[in-house]
């Protein structure tokens, strides 16, 4: 007797019952199965793409029009999830060559970049951290410290978010999100999953994951080395205005830290209002008891050799990340290699060490082996690649220039409204391309606009660069959003519900600080540098 895979459910009878005997499907029912919402969404991408190709005329090359059409296709699929996300992420590999945007080789190169190498290396380290239960130790310690007695969900949330923001100040946002995500999910593992999960628990899980990804982005704003955007801004300032005083680590910190702190508090308040209802402490306290936590910590026992080595490799990696390029006056170790080494270089190098050092548990066994790496999240890597491919396509197809011409109206904006206007524009563009691509695109334009408005260029450049880091709405906005997305706890609606007020709060904070504290720190009230 041949039974279908569908009948794996123990309740289905093995033999077909009389009323279940398959009749040949009628035309009507097969049409009904085709006309589903999912199939409509699958067609929506190509449909919108065709409409744009036929109806929208952009001055400039045909490539920029095609690029816009392809962008709409890919985003339609991403937002509706008609096709699985990693597969949509591979679509530029065939769409770009077919639409004449770039050659197959050029697109494929975007899928392997220094940031992707950074992600690969950090992921292997994160898998090692998980394998040796180090994240549980850290999660238990954070929970013990912030859990409060009786349990206070907002306080615990603050503890997790503050730890992430602090870690993110000193290293790449993606790396910080990757290190902290297993710690956060380690705390969430205590809660039931599936249908038994109460509303309060599921809300708290969402708040924690959103808190980690947004704190990673906010922490990065506070220091010069915390994110690539700040470094790009400083580099551009130096290359466009070589006579002006360069921005140092400490100057940036004086504006970046208060700014990040205020946005961080706004994030915490938003998450508490949306996801921590009054009764949540009773629902959660059943799973988080201080005595239990203490007992679990004791059960883990003292740290073994393998745990200590993995931790020290990780600490070495963080130190190397922080010291690769410090400031213009104090070159980091990167200058020994003529600036050829990137963050990815170090991350892969440190991950390699794990396959060489023995773990002292069994003879000849190393800290990591390739079998443990089978869990590498290719969905994140493909999504990152798609982000880089789109950013390159927008630039090479000439779509970037068309967007920049659309910003000419900025010259008429009154002085007070400059910071919010620039910040809004750049934070909108950054949802669709990577933060670094947005900065590289927007900052040179802002320098031109500043010259024609006769204001200090930093008044526009800093809001432009910080706005580029407000990619809070879409999973593809920045790699750390993707890291949170793959945990399965959050959906796009959650990101939009939290991201929108956070974006508004960020813009308001920046608009208040830039003309006041910014003017004091960077001297933007002095005559414009030409």
Could you write a compact summary of the structure shown?
Pfam families: Na_sulph_symp. Helices cover 65% and strands 0% of the residues.
Could you outline the blueprint of secondary structure elements for this entry?
Blueprint: H1 27-34, H2 37-55, H3 62-80, H4 85-90, H5 92-98, H6 104-110, H7 114-131, H8 134-146, H9 153-170, H10 173-188, H11 199-221, H12 228-240, H13 249-275, H14 280-285, H15 290-300, H16 305-323, H17 343-353, H18 378-396, H19 399-405, H20 418-429, H21 435-453, H22 457-467, H23 479-485, H24 492-522
Write up what this structure looks like.
- With 530 residues, the chain is mainly alpha-helical.
- The chain has one domain (114-522).
- Helices cover 65% and strands 0% of the residues.
- Helix 3 packs antiparallel against helix 18 (378-396), helix 10 (173-188) runs antiparallel to helix 11 and helix 20 (418-429) packs across helix 24 (492-522).
- The relative contact order is 0.12.
- Keywords: Membrane, Transmembrane, Transmembrane helix.
- It comes from Pyrus ussuriensis x Pyrus communis.
- It is found in: Membrane.
């Amino acid at each position: 007797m041949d039974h279908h895979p569908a009948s794996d459910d123990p309740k289905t009878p093995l033999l077909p019952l009389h009323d279940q005997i398959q009749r040949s499907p009628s035309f009507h029912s097969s049409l009904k199965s085709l006309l589903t919402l999912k199939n409509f969404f699958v067609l929506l991408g190509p449909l919108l793409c065709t409409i744009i190709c036929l109806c929208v005329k952009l001055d400039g090359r045909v490539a920029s029009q095609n690029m816009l059409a392809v962008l709409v296709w890919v985003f339609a699929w991403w937002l509706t999830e008609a096709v699985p996300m990693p597969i949509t992420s591979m679509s530029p590999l065939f769409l770009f060559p077919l639409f004449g945007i770039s050659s197959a080789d050029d697109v494929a190169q975007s899928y392997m970049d220094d940031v992707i190498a950074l992600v690969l290396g950090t992921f292997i380290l994160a898998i090692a951290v998980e394998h040796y239960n180090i994240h549980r130790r850290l999660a238990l310690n954070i929970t013990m410290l912030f859990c409060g007695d009786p349990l206070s969900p907002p306080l615990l949330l603050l503890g997790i978010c503050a730890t992430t923001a602090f870690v993110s100040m000193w290293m790449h946002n993606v790396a910080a999100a990757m290190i902290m995500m297993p710690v956060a999910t380690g705390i969430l593992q205590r809660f039931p999953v599936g249908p038994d999960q109460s509303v309060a628990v599921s809300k708290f899980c969402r708040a924690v994951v959103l808190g980690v990804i947004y704190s990673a982005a906010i922490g990065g704003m506070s220091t010069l080395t915390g994110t690539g955007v700040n470094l790009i801004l400083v580099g551009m300032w130096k290359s466009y205005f070589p006579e002006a005083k360069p921005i140092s680590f400490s100057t940036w910190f004086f504006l970046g830290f208060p700014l990040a702190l205020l946005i961080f508090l706004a994030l915490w308040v938003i998450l508490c209002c949306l996801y921590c209802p009054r009764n949540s402490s009773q629902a959660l306290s059943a799973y988080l008891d201080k005595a239990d936590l203490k007992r679990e910590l004791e059960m883990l026992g003292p740290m073994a050799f393998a745990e200590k080595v993995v931790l020290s490799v990780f600490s070495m990696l963080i130190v190397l990340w922080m010291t690769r390029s410090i400031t213009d006056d104090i070159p980091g170790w990167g200058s020994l290699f003529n600036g050829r080494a990137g963050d990815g270089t170090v991350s892969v190098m440190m991950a390699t060490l794990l396959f060489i050092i023995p773990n002292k548990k069994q003879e000849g066994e190393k800290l990591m082996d390739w079998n443990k790496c089978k869990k590498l999240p290719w969905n994140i890597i493909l999504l990152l690649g798609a982000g880089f491919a789109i950013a390159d396509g927008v630039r090479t197809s000439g779509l970037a220039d068309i967007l920049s011409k659309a910003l000419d109206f900025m010259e008429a904006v009154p002085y007070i409204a400059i910071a919010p206007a620039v910040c809004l524009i750049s934070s909108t563009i950054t949802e669709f391309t990577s933060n670094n691509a947005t900065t590289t695109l927007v900052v040179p334009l802002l320098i031109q606009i500043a010259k024609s408005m006769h204001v200090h260029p930093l008044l526009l450049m800093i809001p432009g660069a910080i706005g580029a880091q407000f990619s809070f709405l879409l999973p593809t906005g920045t790699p750390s959003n993707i890291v949170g997305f793959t945990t399965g706890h959050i959906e796009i609606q959650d990101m939009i519900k939290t991201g929108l007020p956070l974006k508004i709060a960020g813009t308001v904070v920046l608009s208040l600080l830039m003309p006041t504290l910014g003017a004091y720190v960077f001297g933007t009230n002095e005559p414009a540098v030409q």
